[in-house]
Each structure stands twice: as C-alpha cells, then as structure tokens.
C-alpha cells in the first residue's frame, strides 16, 4: 500500500465571454500536486457545454491544440484527480457531466464519501446505471434526483447534502450558475477569490488563485453552499454548524502546497512549527539538518531554527518526475525513487545528518533514502517525521485503506528505525497536532483512530471496480 494525494477542484465564472479554459488550465497546473492520474475541463458557452478529459498530467492532456478547440465562455470547471475510490480509467476522469430533464450539470469533487456504498446500492436498486467507479457519480445522481423535484440547482444540492456523509468539496456548474459546497465537517479545503476584471475563482487551494491573478477572498465555511449567478453571490448556511470542524490535518503536513493558506493558517508556517516541535521532542547532536523534497523542507527549516543545527541541502529532486507515491506498483515505485532523488556527497560526507520527512507509510521509500545518504558518506542518519505514525485507515480521501502494510502497526519506533537503516527515529506526537494550526478543529483519525463518521463496511479502493466489471461482462 502506498500513500496518495487528494484531488483538486477549480471553477471560474466571468461577467463576460473570456478564455475561461485557459484560466482553468493554469489553475489546474497550480493544483497538479493534488492529483496526477487524470484531469479535465468543462466550458460553459452560453449554456452549451464543451469538455476535454483524459488520463495524464495537465500539461500532457491540455496541449496548445487541445485548448484551442475549447471555445471561450463565461464559466468553466476543472479537476485534477488521484482516485482514492475507483480505478485509473478514462471513464473516471472528472468533471462528471450530466444531462437531465431540467438542464445540464458538470461536477468536480475532492474527497471520499464514507457512505458511498450504501448510497450507490440504493440508487442501483431504484434503476440507476453507473458508468464510473468513483464517488462523484453517486453525488451527481443524488443531486440530479433532487433537482427534478426542487426549484433550483442550489436547492437540489442542499437537499442532496442531507444524504451525503464524509468528505466532499464540490464545484458544480449549471447553465447559469457556478456553485461551490464544502461538507459540514470541512474535511477538504475550498476557497474563492476575485480578479480585477470581475471574474470569481473557486479552488481547492489559495495557490491556484494566485496562479490566475485572483485575490483571495475567503475560505468556504464547513457546510456552506456558495452560489455565483445572475443574482450575484449568495451564501447558504443551512448545513453550517451541524458538525464539529474536522479539517484533514494531513493537508498541512503533506497534501497542500506550502504557499497555500487553508482556513486562515499558512501551510508553510504550520510545517515550520512541526519542525520546531520535533527539535524539542526528539533532540539529537548533529552537523546538518536536511529535508526530503518537497514536503519535508519546511519542517527541516523549523528543526534547524529551534535546534541551532545548520540547515543544508543534501538531497536533490528531479523536477521532471511526479511524486513517488503516484506509482501503482511497488517495483515501479522503487524505480522512481532511484531517479527521483540523489544525494549531494559534499553536504553529507562524514557528517551526522538529521533527515526530516513528512511521513512513513510502509518504510520502503524511507529505507531507500537513508541508503542514498549512507552511500554518499553520511556518518549518522537520524530521521525525524513531521507527522505521527500511521496506525489506521482513512475514509475521507487519503489512500490508506488497510492496516496490513502500515509499518507502524507492526513494529515499534526502534524496530522501524532498524528496518529503514536509520540510527534513530522520532515522530511528531499526536498530542502536538493541534499546535500546527492553533488547535482549531481537525481530523487525525489516521493517527488516533477517532473517526468523525461511521466507518464504512467495505473499505476497498476498487470496491466499485469489480462490480462494474461484472456488469460489463454480463452485458457482453
């Protein structure tokens, strides 16, 4: 089992016809770190939808020629995907488009529903036919079902939210409106901003707003529905304050870009704090502190600030390869580690090294990195992790669906250090997680097992994949 990042959503509405596809492209490019399996853009040109979606990176799927075929319009929604539920197949590319009796809809989703299997089964028993294996199609079906008996698309979404449980940040486009929604727990981030020429932009992270020249306005509140349409901006809060806020703490540790701000907390500053805490909780005499690029760098800087040990660059990342965790197979993942990172011998030879990384999942990657530094001549390697040990599955969008291969579930800290080849190992204490963000509400279930929702009965990532394959076989 390997750890994967989230999805990223993006939406734009313009007061005039504009190159909204081009703007969405740059927004998705800024969110590429959240998903590297597939991406897509749907453009709304006066109520007519045009789309392009495919497997691959944003720069691969949207060439100059491809973008030129998408018309100008006044709205667009976009998505970058790593599928925590459902396989890597083209039919799972988002945004999902729906034609129904009252119009059209395009939907992009970040997160996982904890009751997806129950909802999908109910829909199938009522006659629904699914073409994808993702949670997003379930959401689209429920919204469409509610739309047929409600006066507006925002009313339909509000009604649908009564059925949805778990994590969902949504950007939804109808012929006349752009609608954003965040689940009542606020598991996943969602914010919006405004450009100088009057465009409104919604995105998973504030870094995407900066990328397209939009000024950050604010984050959506947990449970909030925000409607951009002919009547201006309307905030609906009937689902707000229904649950205690449970923003995924791993957004700050790993998922989000350091230049993003989520719920008024700087991701960069939270990682600096993590490094400072590690220096206090797990001090060690050393000659240099270094981080594993990219998500370990800020924490390494914090460790250096607190400990007084010089900060240095000892690992270089090949910028032309995606995150290691993206590879679906173990052999591919090891091959990528070999070409992804290289050690700077002059920085580490003969030195006692403090190595900072964001997490350890199964330990294979950590072991390979430690070996790289050993081969470069490091005298000692003391590994410090800016998160607690992973002990439990996540049901809200992080791809941890089993305890079977989590190294911390089967080995003590000292045993793990021995397995990965480090001289010592220290994790961020669970009790210090609140310190990273000022003790505001957060979800840390993957570390402490305290789940905000009911635990699903079927937690397999591809639980709908097999079901759909059987149907396809029967159809043949």
Number of helices: 17
Percentage of residues in DSSP E strands = 15-25%
pLDDT averaged residue by residue = 91
Strand order of the largest sheet: 3-2-4-1-10-9-11
Structural class of the helices, strands and pairings? Answer: alpha+beta
DSSP strand count: 23
CATH domain class name of the largest domain: Alpha Beta
CATH structural architecture of the largest domain = 4-Layer Sandwich
Task: Write down the Rg.
Answer: 22 Å
How many separate domains?
Answer: 2
CATH superfamily of the largest domain: Aminohydrolase, N-terminal nucleophile (Ntn) domain
Share of helix among residues?
Answer: 25-40%
Note down, in words, how this protein is organized.
With 476 residues, the protein is of the alpha+beta class. It folds into two domains: 8-246, Glutamine Phosphoribosylpyrophosphate, subunit 1, domain 1 (4-Layer Sandwich); 262-448, 3-Layer(aba) Sandwich (Rossmann fold). 31% of the residues lie in helices and 24% in strands. It is built from 17 helices and 23 strands. It has helices at 20-30, 58-61, 64-69, 116-125, 135-147, 153-161, 206-211, 250-255, 267-281, 297-307, 330-340, 345-348, 364-375, 413-420, 433-437, 445-448, 463-475, and strands at 8-18, 38-45, 48-55, 73-81, 96-100, 103-110, 169-173, 178-182, 191-194, 200-203, 215-219, 225-229, 232-236, 247-248, 261-262, 265-266, 288-291, 315-317, 341-343, 352-357, 380-385, 424-427, 442-443. It has a seven-stranded antiparallel beta sheet. The chain has a six-stranded antiparallel beta sheet with strand order 5-6-7-8-12-13, with helices on one face. Strands 17-20-21-22 form a four-stranded parallel beta sheet, sandwiched between helices. The chain is globular, with a radius of gyration of 22 Å. The model is unreliable at 323-328 and 468-476 (pLDDT under 50).
